[in-house]
Design brief:
Elements lengths: L23 E5 L3 E7 L13 E7 L1 H11 L4 E8 L3 H11 L2 E7 L5 E7 L5 E6 L19 E7 L6 H16 L3 E5 L3 H7 L1 H7 L5 E2 L3 H8 L4 H12 L1 E5 L5 E5 L2 E6 L17 H15 L3 H16 L22
Parallel strand pairs: 1-4, 1-8, 2-6, 4-5, 8-9, 9-10
Antiparallel strand pairs: 2-3, 6-7, 11-12, 12-13
Helix pairs in contact: 1-8, 6-7, 8-9
Length: about 325
């Protein structure tokens, strides 16, 4: 495998202020209040299960933007926050270096996810989409694309009708401006509910798709991630498939062009602590490297490094020196 024919993520777009490379990254996606419960034994139905419980700012789109900013990108985020916690979430985004374009919904709270994380780091989630499920074209402004070289959409944006309309508009305006578009399919459950063919059709303007292994298999109906990457790259032009602890691989125009091995995770007690946000961190590492002009293999390694850093933490964002089990304070509006 070689670095030939890398995916069409620009590395020579006009330089934007504060950008590590050739232009800004605009992420369209959700912000979530994550309630993370770490339980060492299986959840016992109908009774109590001991757990360490922490509060973290999260959301697939926001996590990607935060990791990208942490890694040096000029990262912006288009999102919708709720009336209950908008000041806290805005402050957390800015603290990481993200430039938020955020509307505050006066009638709905910020999205909330209760993530139950077992001893292996695997998670199960209960979700309330809240304000994030009400993003719409009314939240869009063409000025958001100023200085942007890449538009990246979280798949969760597609899964509500107003969000889908926003995704269509954002991709249309980016394409008209000559800005590259990438998409992360988000999660297998919502993908199946939305419809695989429908998602493929609606996200067709993207030139790059970044699914994990399970999402790639669902989107293609095949059983091997390599073949799934090839098929998806034929459809989009380029595909990067995240393989978790096994690394990642990349395909362009129907053939595998690069691969990266997984990295050892350095967490207290060894192994993954919490897989929340790992795929978002990978996408941020990969896209930031490509925007800097790195080759495909180097970009895959950067993605794996960011993912490994994420699973060594509780929550889906870079840390600011907080102890692992310390609860974030929320100051409600």
């Amino acid at each position: 495998m070689t670095d030939a024919a890398p995916p069409p993520v620009p590395s020579s777009a006009p330089h934007a202020s504060g950008t590590a490379g050739g232009g800004g990254l605009l992420v369209v996606g959700d912000v979530v209040t994550d309630v993370v419960a770490l339980h060492g034994t299986p959840v016992a139905p109908g009774t109590d299960t001991a757990a360490d419980i922490v509060l973290r700012p999260g959301g697939s789109g926001a996590n990607t933007a935060c990791w990208a900013a942490h890694l040096g990108a000029d990262a912006r985020l288009l999102t919708r926050l709720g009336y209950d916690s908008s000041e806290w979430h805005t402050a957390e985004l800015v603290r990481t270096g993200v430039r938020p374009h955020a509307q505050v919904d006066p009638a709905h709270p910020t999205a909330v996810v209760i993530a139950m994380v077992d001893a292996t780091g695997e998670r199960s989630m209960l979700t309330n989409r809240g304000a994030g499920g009400r993003m719409s074209p009314a939240d869009w402004d063409d000025a958001f694309l100023d200085g942007v070289a890449l538009l990246h959409l979280s798949g969760y944006t597609f899964f509500t009708e107003p969000g889908l309309a926003l995704a269509r508009l954002a991709m249309e305006r980016a394409t008209a401006a000559g800005i590259a578009v990438s998409v992360d399919p988000a999660s297998t459950g919502p993908l199946r509910e939305f419809g695989v063919e429908r998602f493929l059709d609606e996200s067709a303007p993207a030139g790059l798709i970044i699914p994990n292994r399970d999402e790639a298999l669902v989107l293609t109906g095949v059983t091997e991630p390599e073949r799934a990457a090839e098929i998806l790259s034929e459809r989009y032009g380029a595909a990067v498939v995240k393989l978790g602890s096994q690394g990642a691989l990349s395909a362009t125009g129907g053939r595998i062009v690069a691969a990266a091995e997984g990295l050892r995770v350095h967490a207290t007690g060894g192994g993954a602590l919490d897989t929340t946000g790992a795929g978002d961190a990978f996408a941020a590492g990969y896209l930031t490297a490509r925007l800097k002009g790195d080759g495909e293999a180097a970009a895959l390694r950067a993605g794996c490094q960011a993912g490994a850093a994420c699973v060594a933490l509780v929550g889906g964002r870079p840390r600011y020196g907080l102890e692992v089990h310390r609860l974030y304070p929320i100051h409600a509006d």
